[in-house]
Specification:
Layout (H helix, E strand, L loop, with lengths): L3 E3 L3 H11 L5 H19 L5 E7 L4 E7 L4 E7 L6 H7 L4 E2 L1 E6 L6 E7 L8 E5 L2 E2 L3 H12 L4 E9 L1 H10 L4 E7 L2 E2 L5 E2 L5 H6 L3
Parallel strand pairs: 1-11, 4-5, 4-6, 4-8, 8-10, 9-10, 10-11
Antiparallel strand pairs: 2-3, 6-7, 12-13
């Protein structure tokens, strides 16, 4: 079974409280999602491998370390996942970015992929799938399925807020995928919204309803 990491860092929790607030406007909401994503990525990537390298400073040669082996790919789930990408790229500018779009068929209620564009070497990269909300887990589970079908192996899921139902669904479908969240909330309501949550992340990011 995969691990679930709930971040309790004071800066993350402070910023999370602001994006939950119904009175937080679109601009501030978007900026804070970027900032939280950066802070979370710092923790999500803390076990990335390093290798030694010699660096010539202005005064002497230094024994340093830089990232080794497979590099990073960030894959936002459209559309709300886009709001988390820039914060990660600010921290790791050489990361590659894929995109995946999933919708639920109104008749079968099953996830359907409508768009998927991934780096050609996705099988060699560490992958962080990002989506602000992990509610039922349907979109996350389907997105990971589609990434694995294209050769992705080293996958982690990063969400701002999750419900227990979504975590359970992803763990059942993908026991090899660790889950990283800033907030673990109580439950889903009858409409599938996380309670207390923050509403519709996509609408609040992009000013739509």
């Amino acid at each position: 079974m995969s691990d679930v990491f709930v971040f309790d860092h004071p800066l993350i929790q402070h910023k999370l409280s602001i994006i939950r607030d119904v009175n937080t406007g679109c601009k501030e909401f978007r900026e804070l999602v970027n900032e939280i994503s950066m802070l979370m990525a710092y923790e999500v990537t803390k076990d990335m491998a390093l290798e030694p390298v010699d660096v010539q400073t202005p005064v002497a040669k230094a024994k340093c370390q830089h990232l080794a082996g497979p590099q990073l790919a960030v894959v936002p789930v459209l559309r709300a996942g886009l709001g988390m990408v820039d914060g990660i790229l600010d921290l790791i500018p050489n990361a590659r970015v894929g995109h995946i779009g999933v919708y639920r068929d109104p008749e079968t209620l099953k996830p359907v992929e409508y768009y998927c564009k991934l780096p050609s070497d996705i099988g060699d990269r560490h992958i962080i799938v990002v989506d602000p909300m992990l509610a039922t887990g349907g979109s996350a589970t389907a997105s990971i399925n589609f990434i694995k079908a294209r050769g992705g192996k080293h996958i982690r899921l990063m969400n701002l807020i999750a419900a227990p139902e979504g975590i359970e669904a992803v763990q059942k479908a993908h026991p090899d995928v660790n889950i990283y969240v800033a907030g673990l909330d109580s439950h889903l309501n009858e409409d599938g919204y996380i309670i207390p949550g923050l509403g519709d992340a996509g609408d609040r990011l992009f000013g739509t309803k």
